[in-house]
Amino acid sequence: MEERSRCCRMQKKEHISLQDYISNTRSRDTLHTKSNKHCIGALVRQSGNVTKQLSLSDVSQEAIEFIDSYYRHIGQNGTDLHLARIKCVEESISKTGHYELSHQELVFGAKLAWRNAPRCIGRQQWNTLEVFDCRNISSTKDMFDAICRHLEFATNKGKIRSAMTIFPARQPGQKDFRIWNPQLIRYAGYIREDGTAIGDPVNVEFTKLCQLLGWKGKRGMFDILPLVLSTNGNDPDVFEIPSNLVLQVSISHPTYEWFNELGLQWYAVPAVSDMVFDCGGIQFPAAPFNGWYMVTEIGTRDICDPQRYNMLEPIAKRMCLDTSTNSSFWKDKTMVETTLAVNYSFQTAGVTLWDHHTASDAFMKHFKQEQTVRGGCPADWVWIVPPLSGSATKVFHQEMTNYHLKPSFDYQENAAESHEWQDPKLKLQFKQKRYTLKEVTIFIMCVQYMTMKALAKRDRVCILFGTETGQSEKCARRFAEFYRNLFYVEVYSMDQYDTTRLSREHILLIITSTFGNGDPPQNAKVKTMTDYMQ
């Protein structure tokens, strides 16, 4: 079953919101409206939120297409059994607006959803997926017990097995069963008094939610977060995951003996739990699934990313690398050694892990096989290519087409943001006032007026920068943050500054550098130092 690709959109939007995950800021692209079409292949959440409930006609159409594909798969297409099943499904949808998948159909759909996942480099194992059918559960305790069984099966003493647990489907007139955690296993993140983070910064907000629900964290670097589960729209319950179900690997290095002094570790099972499983016109909002890690996910991203554990520079300094200049390639060297340490540690512990080169080779074999068997293989090149040594892997050099097939795993609305609280105390804690556009506009105008009035009494500092790589701009903005405590500060690129203002400046700082073979940066060529001083 196929949907139109979500990569190239013909319909124009007023703006596209772009997230910078390092600075946690958003910008808007409006220039794309000047183009007839645009590609959103590099957006993390391309597909947006899944529709809460499909229309009856959509449910019926998707159901029949899926049932047809299932009977083709088992070699029973067009048989009396196939036609009788279609009739049964149509009657159920007509009477109740819903129908139930058989266990065999559910398993087939789950495996096919993994096979269709364009962002997964390890899906050549799609047919080995173990599916746990838990559509009959009714309480959060039942959900928790099922997740524990899932984790025990998947962990398998380090010999990781791919698995998926499927909880009750979304149905008309009923609220969803939800797992609020982005992954079944993740580390907590806390904010210190000085504003810095301890633990995993990406989980700070979810950690706060868990604490408001009564969980007590130890404020350590690697505290396992509890499971937050809800059924049929009820307020969530919190469950601690038994420590014996969370296999963790301490990170050491084959040659750097000091590496284990960093105290780094990571969990063995990556189980995504906040996506919706969409199959045959039925949506399953709680359907956690896992494969196993590719080494760069941990070594390059989780440990080294600035918005995650941000260990790149501390490790580089322990390696005695020159971190004062990009030309020393200290970041590259550190990432390689950190990723090597993760690979070495998992292998030593006997825990399943793929290196990115092996994963790339295996995907290319799968990619070519799919082209032969199915006539194509949906693949998101941006996600398939590893974050380390990209061009040294085969997938880097392979053109790919990204499109959306069903059954599928899709993003959905955040459970915490969409939940309607039942408990008055919790409702008061989580209540958020929604302001109108007019109220927000008035508030911003008032703040701007008061800010400008206060700043007018301060001396003005103007900082100009000339840069090609962004280093001088970064330095200029650091100076600006420092001076804002005492002065009214403005920062400009040198080619955007109005030189007629020079005589009115109180304090002027110019920060620039050379580029390449001693040449000035592009944005500093039109305004030389002599121009500014004349």
Polypeptide structure, described:
The chain has 534 residues and is α+β, with helices and mostly antiparallel strands. It has three domains: 32 residues, no CATH class; 278 residues, Nitric Oxide Synthase, Chain A, domain 1, CATH 3.90.340; 93 residues, 3-Layer(aba) Sandwich (Rossmann fold), CATH 3.40.50. The protein is built from 15 helices and 21 strands. It has a four-stranded mixed beta sheet with strand order 5-6-17-14, with helices on both faces. Strand 8 and strand 9 form a beta hairpin. Helix 1 packs antiparallel against helix 2, helix 6 crosses helix 8 and helix 7 packs across helix 8. The longest helix is centred in the middle third of the chain and has 20 residues. It is globular.
